[in-house]
Design brief:
homodimer, 10 helices
Amino acid sequence: MDKVFFGIDIGGTATKLGAFSAEGKLLDKWEIPTDTGEHGSRIMPNIAAEIVRYADTTENVIAAGVGVPGPVRRDGYVRRCVNLGWGGFNPARDLSAQLEGVPTFAGNDANMAAMGEYWQGGGQDARSLVFITLGTGVGGGIVLDGRVVYGSAGLGGEIGHVVVNPDEPMPCNCGQYGCLDQTASATGVVRHARRVLARRTDEPSALRALDAITARDVFDAAKAGDALAYEAVDTCMGFLGKSMAMLTNIIDPDMYIIGGGVSKAGEFLIDLVRRHYEQLATLSEQRAKIALATLGNDAGIYGAAKLAMDAVRR
Amino acid sequence: MDKVFFGIDIGGTATKLGAFSAEGKLLDKWEIPTDTGEHGSRIMPNIAAEIVRYADTTENVIAAGVGVPGPVRRDGYVRRCVNLGWGGFNPARDLSAQLEGVPTFAGNDANMAAMGEYWQGGGQDARSLVFITLGTGVGGGIVLDGRVVYGSAGLGGEIGHVVVNPDEPMPCNCGQYGCLDQTASATGVVRHARRVLARRTDEPSALRALDAITARDVFDAAKAGDALAYEAVDTCMGFLGKSMAMLTNIIDPDMYIIGGGVSKAGEFLIDLVRRHYEQLATLSEQRAKIALATLGNDAGIYGAAKLAMDAVRR
């Protein structure tokens, strides 16, 4: 077989693997369960076994990249990863040792997704971008001139914990009040919708008929013209636009790429965010582009593979 | 004579020039007035004349770097620089043309100062740093892995316009409310001191005896134990610490370097900022170092020279 790169994205329940050609084409992808038992000690052996099974021999593997759901230092060291049970562990070195020295590199999963979108996703035209993923929480990654911003302790791109809403009464799990994570995540959109409904009990809303509200329900109702739902999503996306205006004053990227489950609201969401962003990003006449992510859940394996490619070719 | 690099820092009233050896040693430095007449059209010819006067011939000049008080794109283009009267101008190309093709590069002045501190100033031990200059306003620059973050439109490092104080009633000149520029600048410190004095008229303060209050007065009184002055500087440096906690969640630098006139308050100021920063930077157990700038007004010429060195050696 031809030699391949591997891109791996370790999640709390499933691990995605992607085999890429030397030219960067995704050849095959599949998932295995993430076995978090025994402090996650079986996770890397399981991945190594999959790689060898696919490639027959480690000779066929040029390099591998691994995305981890937590902060990763540039040297691959993970101080602590609660979701996987790891503490004081270097998964890149561990995998490399199990693969007879195949060069292996690791990064934070959202940073890897940012790199994936930069390479073959929504950010292909950008020289620098910020990727923001709106899921249960808000994550992110920054790519400048083709390189991921790792940060000193692996916190690069943790933009979910930029403070944007000074009026937030609930503490974020990071201890601050009013983090982007609390407003632009799926959880945040639902919380804000409930608040609007509770504050304006005299006004009708399709959301009142629902037993449990999801972020998708709120966006769907807003698109259908529901005034209270619109107020909620406009507030939440306003805070996202505010965080982006700040990022423009700090790193001034060419482009913002919005991904994650909430981004399935599509161009409707992008239009909301753009309006707020352009109103607040007052220092520059040249506004950054804002676009949807295009690789979905595969962004992480793309980015991890690219990390490995760049590292062995540099 | 031996061949030299030039580092130039153009200010609204004076332009600093530095001649550096090929090894990066500052050999000579001097200033000339900045002639902003005729839309700043004499600024670059005056600089070119100084360089030729010093070096005898352009053959002796390896390369030159220029710091400009406004946003500069990576290609050297300046869309507008109000202080110098420029619009749609590329000072690097212009100077290069006047110096018979000597390679010339330009960047924002605060970004150049950041690079100077990174190279030979307070940030020599850092791999990545954020430089924050507290003067009449608040400026800044970011250096990651030895490279300045220019940004798409030249706004990289404009951290004076990160919003930190949601209770600020006055608009910033950028149109937002509560920018770091409004709180941590000399102007901001004085404004906050006046507010504290006006709010607590029943309490004594050494500041009440002064006709005009300066930021230095406020820091001096705070150091001497004046409770109201201390409250003012603690508030202002608290917002600076907050902005740094945000920056740690975005780019997570190894180090913060604080410069500018206000930073003459020294370790007293650093201690205040550090306390707030460490309280708010909750995501990481590994805190960034915080230190004073050491190059003073020369940081810009150092950084501009380094920009030119790196560019011709890459």
